[in-house]
Amino acid sequence: MKVPKFGVAAAAVSVLALAACGSGGSNDNNASGGSGGNAKAQRACVILPDADSSSRWENGDRPALESSFKKAGFETDIQNAQNDTQKFATIADQQLTKGCGVMLLVNLNGAADQVTQKAHNQGIPVIAYDRPTDGADYYISFDNFHVGELEGQMVVDGLKAAGKDPKTASVVYVGGDPTDGNAKQFHDGADKVMKAAGIKPAFESQGTWDAAKAGTYFEQAYTALSGKVDAVWAANDVNANAAIQILDKNAKKVPVSGQDATPVGLQNVLLGKQWATVYKPYQLEAQAAVDLAVKLLKGEKPTVDKKAADGTPFIAETPVVVNKDNMQQVFDDGNAKITDVCTGEAAAACTAAGLK
Fold first, then answer.
1. Burial group, residue 334, by CB count within 10 angstroms (0-12, 13-18, 19+)
2. What angle do helix axes 237-249 and 263-270 make, rounded to 10 degrees?
3. Could you report the per-residue pLDDT of 36-79, keeping only the tens digit for each?
4. Sheet containing 201-204: which strands, arranged edge to edge?
5. Residue by residue, what is the 3-state secondary structure of the chain?
6. Pairing state of beta strands 201-204 and 231-234?
7. What's the whole-number average pLDDT of the chain?
8. Looking at the whole model, is its pTM more than 0.90?
9. What are the pLDDT digits (tens) for 212-240?
10. Strand duo 277-279 + 320-322: pairing
11. pLDDT in tens, 315-326
12. Which residues contact 223 (CB under 8 A, 6 or more apart)?
């Protein structure tokens, strides 16, 4: 399957009927963001969740958002909550005091929900970025249920390739943090596909995005099952690698799913330790968010033709499965570096795959 190029439009945001954005109220922050608008109305306030659950936030999304907003002529205030919900709230209060024309929030354990209400109290529209947020005016992400479906198919395909009957296979689920709304979508999408193939989880570990905890939880599952593990559904590459480390320690190799096309995930795919990874080019998501935010900053009130399960207008990007056959596109897109992936044990595998 070919990974989409970024020259194609990132999202279809159509300015059709005028629909109200935010929860009403007006102040200087709602002024037009175009020339002559006040400074607060021209500022996009962004809060990222952490630097640990994925390398994308600081290495990918931040520069992509900064660059696109700058090209559009708008100021940004982008900060990272460093996995601290109290810090998330403090950053938001500081940004709102300084003034925002629009807020773009990556939810962290529900911290963005309260911030959204505060923003609405000031008449400021909120875009939920990547993760759902209660009360947000718009939601921009990849189709996360479909991400889960792709992961579930990895497990099914991996079992069949190994000559294992999915109906009798022992599959461990290593899900994401349940406070992240996306984690449930990943789980439910994967579970749908795996159940259709006859898979019943032999063990479902506690969900987390913390690598150390994921490793501990998987080791507990491995011990409880006396090592009888035929495959692992892991919600992302971080959790996948945590499970793979335990499998390596026990000289065992089984199909493992993942997502994010991280350097370690790509290495594990090349080494045959991970079946594949779901690639979500953050540039698509970032550009769609900026395109929408700029309309809001200019005083426009766009509508979109798709809605999330809770009714929030939803712009959904399409994820892609990446294996060694199409991995080159990740490097070509600049979302991973050959020098970070093709090292050590993985160097020979990169050469064999023709990666450069």
1. exposed
2. 50
3. 345 566 899 999 999 887 778 998 899 999 999 999 999 999 99
4. 201-204, 171-174, 231-234
5. CCCCCCCCCCCCCECCCCCCCCCCCCCHHHCCCCCCCCHHHHEEEEEECCCCCCCHHHHHHHHHHHHHHHHCCCEEEEEECCCCHHHHHHHHHHHHHHCCCEEEECCCCCHHHHHHHHHHHCCCCEEEECCCCCCCCEEEEECHHHHHHHHHHHHHHHHHHCCCCCCCCCEEEECCCCCCHHHHHHHHHHHHHHHHCCCCEEEECCCCCCHHHHHHHHHHHHHHCCCCCCEEEECCHHHHHHHHHHHHHCCCCCCECCECCCHHHHHHHHCCCCCCEEECCHHHHHHHHHHHHHHHHCCCCCECCCECCCCCEEEEECCEEECCCCCHHHHHCCCCCHHHHCCHHHHHHHHHHCCC
6. unpaired
7. 89
8. no
9. 999 999 999 999 999 999 999 999 999 99
10. antiparallel
11. 999 999 999 999
12. none
Question: Greatest CA span in the chain, whole angstroms?
Answer: 69
Which tokens belong to 247? Answer: 């499998």
Structure tokens at 20: 């109200």
* 146-160 b/e (C-beta count within 10 Å ≥ 16 → b): bbbbbbbbbbbbbbe
